[in-house]
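Hi U.,

Before I forget, here's the chain from the pilot set. I'm dumping it here mostly so it's searchable later in email.
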Amino acid sequence: METLVKLIPVSSDLALYALIDLSIVVLLMLLIKWLQEKFYSINVNEEISEKDNFAYGIGFSGGLFALCIVLSAVIGRHIQQGVEKAAFGIFLFGIIGIVLIRVGRYIHDKVVLHRVDTPQLLKEKNVGIALVDAASVIASAIILRSIILWVDGSDVNAVIAVISGYFVVLAISIVLTRFYEYRFALTNQNDSFQGALKRGQMAVAVDHAGNLLGTAMVVTTSETLLVYSSTAYVSNVTGWLFVSFALAVGLQIIVQIGKRILLLGVDINREIDQHHNMGIACIGLVLNLGFAILITEFFSL
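Structure:
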């Protein structure tokens, strides 16, 4: 059998750490469910099973996936420091992750999409809003994960760096969304981007979800370009601000060029915004994700 399957030696303590970490992850997922029910005065099981509200299921699933993304940066990080520190580390960053993702989602609902009542539209089974909501929370988690990987340890300085860096990048995401709104109004006779989401326009939602996720993915490149200093609070923040903004703008320029070359002669904005062309929206989403992956890999060489 050894000649057919050759495994890398694994520590005997690994199973214990895995059990502890995964148990904490499940508890944190239950915490997310409880918070969801408290914030929105809703029964998750009833909404998903009895009312068959798959839009709400998409939004709720986005939060669970976001938690897993954040914790992937921490799980196994403290194995050499003992069971207690390992459990404390994943629990600490899990709580921080839940709080920051919750704050990010609140800001997205109240500041970015301030004209849209996301919780109410999820109850009304608006799939377009559900996709944007899930994309925003997953994008937040992707950024948060990269910042957690960037810092060293689990001390106060690391926590400060994570929180400050996260809010800086979140601000950039808000600015880019405002540019998207401006472009939408400019090419659609002052029609509202948020109004289109409220009407359930899926192509617009998919296109915007691609922008959110692509921006988050390319911003993770900052982790490899910036030097972490535990006490240099100002340079940590300004570093994430300038590098993230440059990467986000650079990605959008590359994506727009790619769209124009691939779909030469096609009025892309009209097809997505007015004709609800899901095919073109999916191409935009894939270009955002694809170019973001390529840029990230290039800078990690």
